[in-house]
Every structure is written in C-alpha cells, then in structure tokens.
Amino acid sequence: MVDRLANSEANTRRISIVENCFGAAGQPLTIPGRVLIGEGVLTKLCRKKPKARQFFLFNDILVYGNIVIQKKKYNKQHIIPLENVTIDSIQDEGDLRNGWLIKTPTKSFAVYAATATEKSEWMNHINKCVSDLLSKSGKTPSNEHAAVWVPDSEATVCMRCQKAKFTPVNRRHHCRKCGFVVCGPCSEKRFLLPSQSSKPVRICDFCYDLLSTGEMTACQSTRLDSYSQSPKSSLNDVSDDDDDEDSSD
C-alpha cells in the first residue's frame, strides 16, 4: 500500500498541506518515496506538564509540533527518523492512560492517546514502519536511547543527594544521561554524549563517575527498563534546563 501511494497525487497533496501548516519555519517534508501514513493529536508528557501536540506519521519519519490553531497551524517542528525509534507500552495509572514511550538516541519521551484503540493503532503503524525501514536498509535496531526525563513535579528534593530542596532560587536541573531531577551542586560536571549534542552536556555526579570508569551501560539499561513500566516519564532534551514552552520543547 505504501509503495502504491508513494507517487500518488493524493499523497503529494497531503504532505504539502502538512508543510504549509508549519509555515516557513518548518523543514520541507516532500521527498520521493515518502508517504503520510496518519496523523492525530497525542498528549506529550513535557517537563512541566502534559501538553497536546500534533503528530504526523510518515513511512520514514515521525513529525510533531505545537498546535497554534486547531487542525490548521503548527509550529516548533520536530522530525524524528523512524529507523532510530523503538517504542514501549506504558501501564495505565490515574489520568495518564493509553501511553507509550518513544525512544531514540537523541530524545525519549512519553505520549498518550485518547483511547486504547488509538494507542494500539499508533503503536502498530509505528512498529510496521520501523520494521520495513530496517528490512530495506539491512540495519539493526538501535540499542542506544536517551534517558526519559523525570517530570519536575516528581521531585521536591534532589534525586541524588536527597537533601537539597527545590525553590524558585534553587532550580531543578536534569541529568542528560539518567534523566534524574538534580540540584546544581550535584550536576556541575559536563560530559560529551555524541548522540545528544556536539558539546558536553550537564550530567549528575553519579553518572559522571560511571561514565568516567566505563560502568554506565548496565546502569542505563536497567533504568530504561524500569521506566518502560511507569507512566511517570517526561521528555529528554539536549538544551540546558529549558522550559517546554520554548523552541526546544
């Protein structure tokens, strides 16, 4: 079906509409062989609070952005290559239901659909697109994923020293390696994580020690597995402590 739609006028027109919705600030999306599979509004668990985002699933990329005018205009376009994506279902808890993790080497975050059926359809379509891409390219699935950030609301004190209380003066920071909410003194060091940034990024003292001794892999794998079972997850972002209202989301 994807091959049949690839060069159709209907597909070209649909992609053009998506491009126009993002305006001049968005990247061009029309390339040979690209097909728009589906679109919809998902709730993205951002650093401060869950927010509605418009998502577009193509056969090779996942695009999302802020909703400016419902179903008409979007901004702050994000493009995620699907061949680097893996997804994990999240258990329902409270008001956070029908969710899953979208994990990539550069960014990992949780999204939630309105219904269980919608969640199933999104996950099935994403997995099918990823599988087809890897099959065509002969590549293996990525085994490196950025940490899912712990939301600010989940930490009233530093998750490392367990002492520093967060206030308007004593700000929260996020370790780019483990995703923990930490205080400034516990996250003064920086480390180069090539998959996330070309420059050294903020990490906590605990992760710095593990990275420096080469003992980080096992720890990171265990932590990601635990987040796959918990809905209390947030976005991962390469910029330093930006609010999710800004261009880095």
TrEMBL record:
It is found in: Early endosome membrane; Endoplasmic reticulum. Residues 238-249 have a biased composition (Acidic residues). It is a peripheral membrane protein. Pfam families: FYVE, PH. GO terms for molecular function: phosphatidylinositol binding; zinc ion binding. Residues 152-212 form the FYVE-type domain. Residues 225-249 are annotated as: Disordered. InterPro entries: PH-like_dom_sf (IPR011993), PH_domain (IPR001849), PH_domain-containing_F (IPR051765), PH_Phafin (IPR037871), PLEKHF2_FYVE (IPR047966), Znf_FYVE (IPR000306), Znf_FYVE-rel (IPR017455), Znf_FYVE_PHD (IPR011011). Its main location: membrane. PROSITE patterns: PH_DOMAIN (PS50003), ZF_FYVE (PS50178). One of its GO terms (cellular component) is early endosome membrane. Residues 35-131 form the PH domain. Keywords: Endoplasmic reticulum, Endosome, Membrane, Metal-binding, Protein transport, Transport, Zinc, Zinc-finger. GO terms for biological process: endosome organization; endosome to lysosome transport; protein transport. May play a role in early endosome fusion upstream of RAB5, hence regulating receptor trafficking and fluid-phase transport. Enhances cellular sensitivity to TNF-induced apoptosis. This is Pleckstrin homology domain-containing family F member 2. The gene is Plekhf2.
